[in-house]
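Notebook, bench 3.
Goal today: get a predicted structure for Roadblock/LAMTOR2 domain-containing protein from Podospora australis so we can plan the truncation constructs. The sequence was checked against the plasmid map this morning, with no discrepancies at the termini. Length recorded as 140 residues. Pasting the sequence as submitted so the record is complete.
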Amino acid sequence: MFNDLQLSDALDDQLSRIAQKKGVKAAFAIDKATGALLKSSGQLSLVRSTHSNGAASLPSQTVGSFTSETVTQATPSPDQTADELSALVWNYVTATDSFVGELDSEDEVKLLRLRTKHQELVIVPDKKYILVVAHEVHGN
């Protein structure tokens, strides 16, 4: 069995390897229980752009549902941007877990793939963390 230090080192290695692949913008891990950003590699700022007015919104974390509450600040710091992105992904995974649980209580989410016009997010929930890889989309 891995202890927490071995898991941390293995996660660092995995994120570094993934972030070096062609087209990958960033790779990061989120604590599955809390939604906190654990580790990241690459440029998270490339994954989430600020709104056209220069303000960023931070969603409040809610288990099992989405919320419209936001906190707006003029210029987000890189740490704030990373925290916001982690919260968005965590809310998405949590809502999807609830959805799958409603369909079949014995089933679980293994992989989420979200493709937009600008990028693709591959999200892999694990027991302790959620692995996220953001990469460029080619051939629009």
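Helices lie at 4-19, 78-103. Confidence is low (pLDDT under 50) at residues 52-59.
Flagging this for group meeting.
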